[in-house]
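FIELD: query
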Amino acid sequence: MLKKTKSKSKHGYALYIIGAIAIIIALCTLTFYWSHFSGEVSSKHNVWAEFGDFIGGVLNPVFGFLGLIAILITVSLQANELSLTRDELERSSEALESQNNTFLKQSFENSFFQMLNLHNTVLNSMEVDGRYENEEYKGRECFEMFMFAIRNGIVEAKPPYVAEDTIENQVEKGYAVGYSKYPQYLGHYFRLIFNMLSFVDNADNRGVDKLFYVDLFESQVSENELLVLFYYCLTNHGRSNLAPLAKKYRLFKSLRKELIGDDSLIELWDCYEGELLEN
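FIELD: result
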């Protein structure tokens, strides 16, 4: 704004100088005429005609030249003002874009933390019976029972070696056995995790570090939760929705292999990687 005011003042000063020069030249012309010719006011028509021709012949070219200069200065002033206005509009546009990015990030964070709170609420509402009489698990403790049910289902699904059987089928059968014991909890939980990761994955990239938020979620998840999610991702249903997101954001990077136990499950997860990353 200060630059714009200085430029306008400079051009205005130049126009004042041109006006002053025009007045001085006009006065000098009149003085010259009156000093060399009679200064008396004549009543003759031809004298006034000669006076008009003299004044017009001298001043018209001068005023025309000064007028041209004034027009050029005015055009320069307008061009400079347009340039400054364009710069201000660009800065305003950048400021608005920055504010919009900040708003989008805040909106994303508010929604993400609401989903994170919902995740904790769902966990805290879980209550299941333990393996012994009068034993009860609550909250995150429930995933110990979920993990044992699924793992035992997978182990029991392994028949004596049959050539046509595959580890994929064994996992699918064993997982179905474990899932059938707690469908009211696991189904809701898996949908919530999938929606949370999908929300992060679909977020606008402006100012949003997606991996940071997934890591933030993963830091609040217990090993038993991660293991249950890992088993789910090995199934046909989990492989089609949650597994690609889990691999993309390395959800199981902190899951200890000894906790998984069976190397064939690790190999099965590893063999999915190429296919999932290509899809």
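FIELD: remark
The longest strand covers residues 127-129.
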